[in-house]
Amino acid sequence: MNERKKFNFSTVLLYILLFIAMFALYYVGGNGEPFSLALLYAMLAAGLNPVVSCLLYALSGLSGFTLHFLPVYAGQAAILCIVFCVYAKLKKKASVLPLACVALSLALFVAFSPFTPYNIPLKLPFSLGAITQKIILSGLILLLSAMFTVALKALLNKLLRCRLKAEEIIFSVLFFVLCGVGICRIASVTAYMGIAFLVLLLFACATKDASALVCAFALSLPPAFVGGVSPERFFIYGIAVVLFIKMGRLPAVLALLAVFFAYGYFDGIYALKTSLLVQSILSALIPSLLFLLIPSPLVRKMENKLVFYREKHLSRIAINRNRAAIGEQLFEISGVFREIQTTFAALSTNEAEEGAKEYIRGCVIESVCKSCANYRTCMARGLENGLNKLIDVGCAKGKTSLIDIPSDLAESCVNQSGVLYAVNRQIGDYRKYMLETENAASGRQLLANQAQGVSEILKNIALEQSEPLTIYSEKEKQLNVALLKAGIVCSEVLIAGDEDSLTLSLVTFGKADVKKIAAIASHVLAAPLIISERLTLSKDKFCCILHRKPYFDAAFGVATLTKTGEIASGDTHSVIKIDERRFMIALSDGMGSGEYARRISESTISLLESFYRAKMPSSLVLSTINKLLTFSREETFACVDIAVVDLDNGEADIVKIGSPMGFILSGNALHILESASLPLGILESLHPDTSSYTLQEDDVLLFLSDGITSAFGSSSDLYETLKNIPASNPQQLADALLAKAVALYGGTAKDDMTVLAVRLFKSLSEAV
Predict the structure, then answer these.
(1) What is the dihedral of CA 278, 279, 280, 286, to 10 degrees?
(2) First to last CA, the chain
(3) pLDDT, tens digit, for every residue of 33-64?
(4) Which domains occur in the chain, in start order?
(5) What's the rounded Cα separation, in Å, for the pair 737 and 742?
């Protein structure tokens, strides 16, 4: 049953309007028939306060200003009040029993209510006495109870929030028509006409379309039943208002009054007594004046609310068109970066090195050989090739000596010392030039790799965005119905993606229970879902976005200690969420200890986080960071452990670069992760140790810095220690291992020490 409404101004106003409706329904019949009992049951079934609702119903028994019907109304109210209070106490939803109690309440009407039989001009084979007519009316009221329940729930929970179903609209119209009949009987058709005019003007002002004609037809029915007013008259009123409402409120009012006075001329109302004439004219003037006096901000607010209710926020066509356009543009941008990468790669050649050697040879010949008397003889004997060999050796070694001179050149050259001096001087300049050339080439290669990485990222996003949304119309309908049964109104529901990457978007109202929404959606879609976003669309309208919940969740543990005597640690760790389904852990150990080691380690981790968040390919990430570290003029390197874990299947991609051993703890088994590669930043070429493992539930992945591993005498000692430490809590595991390492060092930290542990566990059971 819905949560009881708190008594505030809007709730009090609601009960007043419902009491007026009960008062009007009392006069639908001529014998005080309890038509308002149908409304009472609808109020109770909709979750309104049973005591207040039943008290209002009992008071409506005095509508005829007589006590004849009060005992019956009070008895009926008592029966339903007791039943629904018990249901509220037990927190059960209304079922068949409360409706059966309505039938029991109607039995009181049949047995005890005063009744004057209606004169029915039909020839029937049986007599329609008072009891028979009461039974027929009781059946009609019982049927109206079910109809009014549907109508009232729709009016309270869905009006101006989402589109009403056909039966909800029909039953709501029936409810208002019967209330209108009661008003016509109690206050006269003329008074009802005034109310109808105001409703028609307000409806037309809010919608500004032909739906006002439907409203006019519904408003025409009560006076047609009671006073014989032709329905076509209201149709003409509706046309007049619809034609002029877009010009403003005053033109619409003038059009309505023009039609009213025109009908008055043909109806002869101007020949009536003054009192009747005034009543008739006021029935049109008063609602028109009230309509014109409504503040403009209130009218605009009403119009905006209706427009916002009609607007679709999750149009598949618009979404797919936007996705396709974005995907196409991303493909074009990806092509631009691919061309940049190709251009930089084309500029990386060895022509500069060959040209530099030719330049050295020319300088040596000009400065030394041409001034020698044996120059022509040497050139004729082809000793230039010997000079080329000497230059090649000098470029490779960085300097030449007498033992590097080729034999044929040594036998013929009479100025060997002069040649060696000239070659070594040019090689010194050559090395400076080649260093600059290599740095430029490395820079171009770095930019080429980055352009390639950006191109790959954009291409993947383009492929993802270009795929149109899959249609799940039937599932969306089932989910909408399930949420509505749970008391959650959704105007729009959109399911996107495949089974592995399911995304649910829905528009709901008020303080909707997001946990309840996730539970219902998980059951209907047979997939565990969680709320990832809740966007505010208006004051009481929200868009909830749900994603498939990963099979695994993770718990992390970190323990660190800075080397004794140092103010900064050279170890840096990171735990980041790459996307909804993957996370990365990394441990970097910078060279040495202290502030400089800390900067190296933090820079490495920061680059790793940025690149992996951008979903750049792992090979490009590592090669780029390696090149950036080799650019440093000082000796800069870092040992790195990286693991990217998929929470859907437990797949872990592990990269180790010059780092000490790591571990995977699985039950009673330990798997050692080793690295034979050099740290980042030592050589330009990089050969990391990569591996993939499928982690199971309760498996623990453990990374250690060398400050931890060096504390143990051997890997066997570390292995034995890990076997004796409980791994269920990764933080306790990290703390215990750090404490053990410090104890082995004699109570002091002889190096920066870090333990990073992560344990996978099942997040929840699969939805049934």
Answers:
(1) 100
(2) 25
(3) 899 999 999 999 888 999 999 999 998 888 66
(4) 1-187 (no CATH), 188-311 (no CATH), 316-468 (no CATH), 473-548 (3.30.980.40), 552-762 (3.60.40.10)
(5) 9
